[in-house]
Amino acid sequence: MNTTYRRYIDTCSKMARGYRENEFDGTNQMKGAIATKLIREEMGNLVGVEFTVSTENSFIEGSPYEYDLLVVRKDAMPSFGNVYRPEDVIAVVECKANGLFDPERDSSTIALAANAAYELNPSIRFGYISMTERMPEHEEKRNGKEPAKFWELTKAYLRRKLKMFSVLYAVTLAQGKDILDGGSDAEFHEFVDTLASVN
Predict the structure, then answer these.
(1) How far is residue 73's CA from residue 61's CA, in Å, rounded to a whole number?
(2) What is the pLDDT of residue 87?
(3) Percentages helix, strand, coil for the chain, rounded to the nearest 5?
């Protein structure tokens, strides 16, 4: 199983010890923050000598949006510690713990922010990374409805709405509580290498 995902699960398990049974399940914001922090650390080890990874929740001058992470030039000098010039930004990265719960709506919000960065610097790339994406538990229709294929919908909506080069990566794929695909370190390295390659 992917080292990044294993670290995420271990960290979340430690955090859950302070909560009553099932109480931790509702702490999606905390899980998202943990995922982003761990992804930042892992990416920071892989982006090479020319680039670095911003602090979580950074900004690009000229864009009103907040970005989970930015891959930036090593010599970038951010204003106020987390506001970068567009020409110093290589990629914007959207991090999720458990994917999108409403792919159509949420992909619009993500694309709005990513496309704003692209308008400022057309060489900026986009990366979407999710620790776990859900696969449908049942393939057959229920009450006349197709099962929600969140990962497929997420990819389709983002590809349609984004203006820039993008890399979409699910570290693991889950069906219920079962992990169908545990990912690999090689896949994570490829995700980072594609985002942080020299233009």
Answers:
(1) 15
(2) 98
(3) 40, 25, 35
